[in-house]
User: What shape does this take?
Amino acid sequence: MFEELGFEELTPVAASVLLGLALGLAYGVLAQRSAFCLRRGMVGRWRDCLPAAGVWAMGLACAIAGTRLAVAAGLISFEEHRFLAADLPLASVLLGGALFGAGMVLTGGCASRLTVLVGTGNLRALLVLVVFAVVALAAMKGALAPVRTALGAASIPGGGMSLAALPGGEVWPLGLAFVLALIAFRSGARIPHLAMAAGIGLLVPLGWVGTGFLLLDDFDPIPVQSMGFTGPMADTLFWTVAATSIPAGFGTGLAAGVVAGSLAAALAAGEFRWQSLEGPRQTGRYMTGAAMMGVGGVLAGGCTVGAGLSGVSTASLAALVALAAMAASARAAGAVLEGR
Assistant: This one.
């Protein structure tokens, strides 16, 4: 498809940076204004966090519905995507989800939320993201990679199925989207926030179609990917220190776009404020959480957006298990912290 767009001097990789930047800008604005974050919907008394959970549920519902429509239209296929691998690395997914969920409670936000907060002047979030990216990169390609490999080997053969492969086919993912939308409308969340969450959710199929259809080039292929922050943050860190050796990609554009979009939204609303860490105790807590999210995001196959919004939209059972582990762990960690 990319050859038919008529770009003569733009490669698919370069175009993917622009696509990531555009999607990131939109995400940054919408997430900053709606305070979109799974952690906000999991920590605290249920009646207090239900509206935030409803906002997140609406984003997931639209991500699933939009992606399944793109699949039905033949624009994208996930047959060979890592989310639908033949084997289910259950130990890795469960442990990774649990680590990420508890980590985002310790840091005060998931990786996506912290990226948004960087644009509002939050230096705590910036430091957490640096540690998060370093640890994630170590788990992907460095000293912690053997741990990832060993846990990934403990898999269930044939367990990595798609919900759409069950009897009834697309009824399952679309039914899940309907239930999530119903929960969102009954959560008490404000309609403008639900609308913005819907916009965030629709960025997911746009990412899939953009990288898997519009930028498809058999001679210069790029990975099929969508919204997420574990891989993109690790890629951005790697590119930052080795830009003369490796090109920027979709993830680098996405990360930059989210910060820029959030910054624009915060400045427009008069909400830009410099913030920093308050002391050694808080610093230790945030750094611990950052490391947990870095390892957890890699083991689980992504963060709350990467494995959550994007992963579940592929109808992946592994992504659904990872998201459930994140939510349960965040809820438990929040209860422990509040009990102190």
